[in-house]
């Protein structure tokens, strides 16, 4: 049995909740404050160091900008929770 069959990870429908609102999470999945609640955890840090301008957009600004491009951040064709 995979995680995908045990749990439901709904994503907000476009237009239902603005993409730039709320806590920015990976693939817009629910936030889990306790590691004990997780089966799989993905840890990462958005980095804005690859710019010709001074850095400083911060992780929040990087995620907010990325959320405005829905086609650029869609999940892959395979279900990530079937790993």
Automatic annotation (TrEMBL):
Stretches of the chain forming a coiled coil according to its record: none
Molecular function terms, GO-annotated: proclavaminate amidinohydrolase activity
List keywords of the entry alphabetically. Answer: Hydrolase
Q: Where is this region: Disordered?
A: 48-83
Broad class of enzyme this protein falls into: hydrolase
User: InterPro entries, alphabetically?
Assistant: Ureohydrolase_dom_sf (IPR023696)
E.C. code: 3.5.3.22
Question: What Gene3D superfamilies does the annotation carry?
Answer: Ureohydrolase domain
Keyword Hydrolase present in the record's keywords: the answer is yes
Q: What is this protein called?
A: Agmatinase
């Amino acid at each position: 049995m995979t995680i995908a069959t045990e749990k439901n990870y709904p994503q907000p429908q476009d237009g239902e909740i603005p993409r730039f609102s709320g806590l920015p999470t990976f693939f817009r999945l629910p936030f889990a404050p306790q590691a004990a609640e997780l089966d799989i955890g993905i840890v990462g840090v958005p980095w804005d160091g690859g710019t010709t301008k001074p850095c400083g957009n911060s992780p929040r600004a990087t995620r907010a900008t990325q959320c405005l491009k829905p086609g650029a951040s869609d999940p892959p064709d395979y279900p990530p929770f079937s790993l």
